[in-house]
Write a structure and sequence with these properties.
By secondary structure, this protein is α/β, with parallel strands linked by helices. 45% of the residues lie in helices and 20% in strands. It has 3 domains: 96 residues, 2-Layer Sandwich (Transcription Regulator spoIIAA); 74 residues, 2-Layer Sandwich (Phosphorylase Kinase, domain 1); 207 residues, Alpha-Beta Complex (Aminoglycoside 3'-phosphotransferase, Chain: A, domain 2). Strand 2, helix 1 and strand 3 form a beta-alpha-beta unit. The protein is elongated, with a radius of gyration of 25 Å.
Length: 393
């Protein structure tokens, strides 16, 4: 018996196959031991994709392998074999990972989109978030934990129940959302008016922002925004940069939850209930940072290219701007127009800081459109920063 294997960066991967039982367990162990001795490794991965069955004799081989190399992991375990590991308590003793079923999103409707992936409707009951990063498993597990945290704290959200491999590469998270439609879809089809959708969006946003989280459960958005500001040190006049840095630095720590990428493609309506999706950007901080993200989604990113509103949100630019304005007035219901305008300018400062940094990091100076967007952000910041003495409201 000679299992295939690979060795890279101190990790030895051995590809188990067929059946491992009392008839061949000793031979299997000799093979694994020979491979291990020829490839001294800090960690061993036993790939079980082609493993059909394992008996108690085979389990003892695995146990002795783990005893020799503590960091031993089982991956791509079929449901049938996983059940054996689970029933015998192996899943409590070591890392045993099920094989992921393969799913295709080709031809599926895109119903949501965020910074790290797209959300597709697979069928009437199911949606899947396809991650842009082909090695997204750590992101997926992190987002699942964030979603659980939000759900337990009372924020209405969908919890992923499965992880899949996508045809063509990459991974996705599967959610059950029966007949759910995004606010973007409801607006585009005329099923909801701007006023109705804005009210739903703001009501959910207020629930999110009223929720207090533990500091170590998610990122601090103020610290992230300070990094954005510091990035612009070499791209803004010194007085503007110093003012920007001081404004962001002066925002106190606020442990209220934020979504971080809140817009109409990340809010779903299911059987009359409004739900939040795309939870990988969940964080905590002052609402000015959330409003900045919203301003960018509805106004900032599309300011120089109005067609982008249709491409991204599915609604015309003028409707996106109107949605932002309605949302702002609903969020600060009862505030006068002067107060609303002042709050919007605070959000715009953070928003244009983020857009400018993003564009520069994406080689913006190398294209005419990029240079125009960078200069537009610089112009807005030069106009707004001298007028604003605090980002708080």
């Amino acid at each position: 018996m000679n299992f295939e294997h690979s060795f890279s960066d101190g990790v030895l991967t051995i590809f188990l196959a067929g059946r491992i039982d009392s008839g061949n367990a000793a031979e299997v162990e000799r093979c694994i031991t020979a491979i291990r001795e020829a490839n001294p490794a800090a960690a061993i991965v036993l790939d079980c994709e082609k493993l059909e069955y394992i008996s108690s004799a085979g389990l003892r081989v695995i146990l002795r392998c783990k005893k020799s190399v503590a960091d031993t992991t089982l991956v791509n375990v079929s449901p049938e074999v996983y059940e054996i590991f689970d029933m015998t308590g192996f899943t409590e003793m070591m890392d045993v990972r099920k094989a992921y079923r393969v799913l295709s999103v080709e031809g599926c409707e895109v119903i949501g989109q965020g910074a790290n992936g797209k959300v597709y409707r697979i069928d009437r009951d199911t949606i899947v978030k396809a991650y842009l990063n082909p090695d997204a498993l750590p992101e997926i597990h992190r987002e699942r934990e964030l979603a659980r945290t939000a759900f337990v704290l009372g924020v209405p959200t969908a919890i992923p129940y499965d992880v899949v491999r996508l045809e063509g590469g990459g991974y996705g998270s599967v959610f059950e959302l029966l007949n759910a439609k995004s606010l973007a879809k409801l607006l585009a089809t005329g099923e909801k008016s701007l006023d109705e959708a804005a009210k739903m969006s703001v009501d959910l946003l207020k629930i999110i922002h009223s929720t207090v989280v533990k500091p170590d459960s998610m990122p601090d958005m103020c610290a992230v925004a300070l990094d954005w500001a510091d990035f612009l040190k070499d791209y803004l006049e010194s007085a503007l940069y110093e003012k920007l840095h001081a404004l962001v630095e002066a925002v106190p720590v606020d442990h209220h939850m934020m979504h971080g990428d809140y817009h109409i493609k990340n809010v779903m309506l299911q059987n009359g209930e409004v739900l939040l999706i795309d939870m990988d950007t969940l964080c905590y901080g002052h609402p000015v940072f959330e409003l900045a993200s919203m301003y960018n989604a509805y106004c900032g990113y599309t300011e120089l290219d109005h067609d982008m509103s249709l491409r991204f949100l599915g609604i015309p630019h003028e409707d996106a701007v109107a949605f932002w304005e309605k949302s702002l007035r609903l969020y600060f219901e009862g505030a006068d127009e002067e107060t609303i305008k002042a709050i919007e300018e605070k959000a715009m400062i953070v928003g244009y800081t983020r857009i400018m940094r993003r564009r520069i990091r994406r080689n913006g100076f190398e294209s005419e459109a990029g240079r125009a967007e960078i200069e537009n952000c610089r112009r807005h910041l030069a106009e707004l920063l001298p007028k604003v003495d605090t980002l708080l409201f």
